[in-house]
Design brief:
20% helix; three-stranded antiparallel sheet; two-stranded antiparallel sheet
Length: 70
């Protein structure tokens, strides 16, 4: 199973991440950048010290493999 992680810089230049519940595999860089830019532009997430998502940092998949023992 692959999970998508989106990393942003916040107003304090610290990294924050979100993991969408569902994400299509094989997304292109252009699709992800457009989605991340939309999240930033929406400005609906706040935290103490300023905006939670100010700039896109990176995006990546993490693949988890389950191996049954019995």
């Amino acid at each position: 199973m692959k999970k998508l992680y989106l990393s942003f810089k916040n107003a304090e230049s610290k990294t924050t991440r979100i993991q969408p519940k569902t994400a299509r595999e094989g997304l292109t860089k252009e699709e992800v950048v457009k989605a991340m830019d939309s999240i930033i532009a929406a400005d609906v997430f706040a935290q103490a010290g300023g905006a939670k998502y100010v700039s896109a940092e990176d995006a990546y998949y993490v693949e988890t493999i389950r191996t049954d023992i019995f």
